[in-house]
Amino acid sequence: LPQRLATLATTAWEEARQSRQQLQAQRQEVARLQEQLSRARQDGERWASALQRAQREALEREAMRGAEQARQQELIRDMKGRLLELLREKDALWQKTEGIDTPMPSPASHDAGLCARCRKDFRLLSRRYNCRLCQGKVCHACSVDTGKQGRCCLLCYQQRHPQAT
User: Fold this and answer.
1) Which residues form a coiled coil (predicted)?
2) What distance in Å separates the CA atoms of residue 124 and residue 71, rounded to the nearest whole number?
3) Which end of the chain is more exposed for a tag (fewer CB within 10 A), N or C?
């Protein structure tokens, strides 16, 4: 019986030693896993911080683009307004200089695509008007609006209304 007890004690001691070794290995594994978890959390925090920074930068860039687009649209509006002013000024200057040494328009111009006075092509921005007096086709710059009676060319208007020159 003492030998059996010694064998059982040795076996129990060996099992306890193996259990301690397994416990030690499991503790080491838990420590290693906790360290990996800690590194993963730190990496997650760094990635979240980088993502927030990238989102902030993207929002700032979008705001800058929006402001730049608004400035460009305002510039385009201003340029369109200035273009219209320049066109009006050009027409006014053209009308002022038109009466100086200009020949009488031919009553029936063979070229219906050109102004009878300045020979300018009729296009989208240059309308064609029939002079109510000589029936010539003239552009906006070469005509005068006489109200309800319609438009007439500058030469006919100046001949009918010499006080206007």
Assistant:
1) 16-57
2) 29
3) N
DSSP the chain: -HHHHHHHHHHHHHHHHHHHHHHHHHHHHHHHHHHHHHHHHHHHHHHHHHHHHHHHHHHHHHHHHHHHHHHHHHHHHHHHHHHHHHHHHHHHHHHHHHTSS-PPPPSS-S-TTB-TTT-PBP-SSS--EE-TTT--EE-STTEEE-GGG-EEEHHHHHHH-GGG-
Residues 6+ apart with CB under 8 A from 129: 137, 138, 139, 140, 143, 151
Tokens of 2: 């003492």
